[in-house]
Amino acid sequence: MTTASIGQLLDSTVPMARTLKLEYLETTPERAVLRLPDQPEYHNHVGGPHAGAMFTLAESASGCIVLGAFGEQLSRAVPLAVSAEISYKKLAMGAVTATAVLGRPAADIVAELDRGERPEFPVTVEITRADGAVTGVMTVVWTLRPNS
């Protein structure tokens, strides 16, 4: 899948991502990079992006890398987020970017699916502001639930 098609798929299946007008900068099996534009309607009390908007940005980036890495498996398994944890490190102002990477080799995860298992795997996401400072870190644990 291309960056455009993954972004279109996410926007069509996850209305919240579309609502936030997320920008899909890169989506490959190795990495996904999404940007939340600076939008006053999604600001918090100090004028930066609201924590909920940053959570959605990071979770969406994690979903994009899952689609990029496991798009060929969608006919036999459904990707589902199992859990998510986020830490806000520094004040975020302006547009923020989320970069997601898989925490385990995709081949290992597909091998578990091939054995009839329901693999779980972490995706780590860093949220940065324009000056490169890391404003947040999220870990989302995903699973590929085999179709019955």
UniProtKB/TrEMBL annotation:
Gene3D superfamilies given in the database record = Hotdog Thioesterase
Q: Which Pfam families match?
A: DUF4442
Q: Which SUPFAM superfamilies match?
A: Thioesterase/thiol ester dehydrase-isomerase
InterPro entries xrefs: DUF4442 (IPR027961), HotDog_dom_sf (IPR029069)
Name of the protein described by the UniProt record: DUF4442 domain-containing protein
